[in-house]
Specification:
- This protein is of the alpha/beta class and 333 residues long.
- The chain has a domain of 220 residues: Rossmann fold.
- Helices cover 28% and strands 18% of the residues.
- It has ten helices and eleven strands.
- Strands 2-1-3-4-6-5-11-7 form an eight-stranded mixed β-sheet, sandwiched between helices.
- Strand 5, helix 6 and strand 6 form a beta-alpha-beta unit.
- The mean pLDDT is 95.
């Protein structure tokens, strides 16, 4: 077996993003963790749509497909459902994946396609030069909303949970160790894995995530399965489930550690994960990161192959010509 390293996954293409773009950090992280997945480059596929993030397949020394706007999950579904031996990644953005591609995204998640979907969320349209996106905050002044956006933004984690995704997580572009761990967990997950990555666009939306970086790291609520949810300096703050079935932020010393909510990412019912997702609608304050949900459900491609195998066992390989000229066809003089 050939032992691979990061350089083996770096393509010969010149990386062309704006200097300082968060995409560079995500690319380096993904290239660095690829050898740990234990898969040959020839069995890895990256599929993207349209947008700055969607240049990603060019820079990976694997198979790749730069597809059309919003349709990456649909194309990746075809690959994953017919080639069970491949590991398929989808690279998308908040505009590509949640606007024109929103329909494809939610159906890939609900079917539990065997895909690892990484959504770069910079809360702006970068490639088309700074229009507001489905995740831009209300009041956002952009070239397409000169008086401020009136649209209520999507919460990508809540969208994924609502679509019954079996793996849902969030990380940050510059949190390299955390991002690497989350993507590796997602890549080993059987079924649809969705990761939202807060990614800085230093040209059109610079500093959108500063409240979670540097001194703002105290605002990160790191979710660890099986551990009490604690955060802040000295882990002095925590989360409890209040009397009215609402999550409440408390001082640990005041309430006692035994009252803290234990994070259960494997809980079949996604209600608590959804409540965690709703703690913060945007990255301007206390914000959970990590794995919100990781559960098991049959994988679509495996179920599809089983149906085909069962049909063959009952009826043989079939006759395509006879099917095309069957009882539901006719000739027009």
């Amino acid at each position: 077996m050939t032992i691979l390293n990061k350089k083996d996954f770096v393509s010969s293409q010149e990386v062309r993003w704006c200097p300082g773009c968060g995409d560079y950090a995500i690319l380096a992280t993904v290239q660095g963790l690829m050898p740990d997945l234990g898969a040959d480059r020839e069995r890895i596929v990256f599929v993207s749509g349209i947008g700055c993030s969607s240049r990603f397949p060019y820079y990976m020394n694997t198979y790749g497909f730069h597809s059309i706007h919003g349709r990456a999950p649909a194309i990746a579904t075809g690959i994953a459902a017919t080639r069970l031996d491949l590991k398929v990644f989808v690279i998308t953005g908040d505009g590509d994946g949640l606007s024109i591609g929103g329909n494809h995204l939610i159906h890939a998640l609900r079917r539990n396609e065997n895909l690892t979907i990484i959504l770069f969320n910079n809360q702006i349209y970068g490639l088309t030069k700074g229009q507001y996106s489905p995740t831009s905050e209300v009041g956002k002044v952009t070239k397409s909303t000169p008086f401020g956006s009136l649209d209520h933004p999507f919460n990508p984690i809540a969208v994924a949970l609502g679509a019954e995704a079996t793996f849902v997580a969030r990380s940050i572009d510059t949190e390299r160790a955390h991002l690497s761990k989350v993507i590796e967990l997602a890549a080993h997950h059987e079924g649809a894995a969705f990761i939202e990555v807060y990614q800085n666009c230093n040209i059109f939306n610079d500093g959108a995530f500063d409240a979670l970086k540097g001194d703002g790291e105290a605002n990160q609520i790191r979710l660890e399965h099986g551990q009490p949810i604690r955060f802040g300096a000295g882990l002095q703050r925590g989360i409890v489930l209040g009397e009215r079935a609402r999550l409440e932020i408390v001082d640990v010393a005041a309430v006692g550690e035994e009252r803290l909510l234990i994070h259960d990412a494997h809980r079949e019912d996604p209600s608590l994960a959804f409540m965690l997702a709703r703690l913060s609608h945007g990255p301007t304050g206390l914000t959970p990161i990590g794995v919100f949900r990781q559960v098991h459900r049959p994988v679509y491609g495996l179920q599809l192959q089983q149906q085909i195998d069962d049909a063959k066992a009952r009826r043989g390989d079939g006759d395509l010509a006879a099917l095309l000229a069957g009882n539901d066809s006719w000739e027009v003089a």
